[in-house]
Design goal:
Elements: H1 3-6, H2 10-14, H3 22-35, E1 42-48, E2 54-59, E3 61-65, E4 68-73, E5 82-84, E6 95-100, E7 108-112, E8 143-145, E9 151-152
Antiparallel strand pairs: 1-2, 1-9, 3-4, 4-8, 5-6, 6-7, 7-8
């Protein structure tokens, strides 16, 4: 994904907080306090595996949804090789699961295939909010990692 294209036009218009419900506000306070991560990204923040391998440099935003917070990345943010967890299996869900391979730390990386605006609730054990707009604002083509999966520099 071209970063210039990503940060132009309609994406800039989307830069609204996703922490608009009590469970998401709670998650945002936790992430800002524990990791000092701002909701709308930082092009120089570094992310590492538990073994110290650099995973990514920079992120675009944090999506606060009913399945918890997820850090959003473009493919260009990754400083490590990603491999599909399930080989060439055709995905049927809204995302495809990838893993980092550099030090076998088993970091789950979700590549979003389509949005979830038609799904009012996340998979279990997420918060059952019955959201009319969908349970999270994931964007197709973006990559997501739980902030609890890695170390942040």
């Amino acid at each position: 994904m071209n970063p210039e294209k990503y940060f132009s036009g309609s994406y800039i218009e989307r830069l609204q907080t996703t922490a608009k419900y009590p469970n998401r506000v709670r998650d945002r306070k936790k992430i800002e306090t524990l990791y000092c991560l701002e909701e709308f990204g930082d092009s120089s923040r570094e992310f590492f595996t538990s073994k110290g391998t650099l995973i990514a440099i920079g992120y675009t935003r944090i999506v606060y949804g009913d399945h918890g917070p997820y850090v959003e990345f473009t493919l260009e943010n990754f400083a490590t090789t990603l491999k599909p967890k399930f080989g060439n299996k055709c995905p049927r869900d809204a995302y495809y699961e990838w893993m980092t391979v550099d030090d076998e730390s088993d970091i789950k990386v979700y590549r979003q295939l389509r949005d979830v605006h038609n799904l009012p609730n996340p998979p279990s054990p997420g918060y059952r909010g019955n959201r009319q707009e969908g349970y999270a604002d994931y964007l197709p083509g973006m990559y997501y990692i739980s902030p609890f999966e890695f170390n942040i520099g």
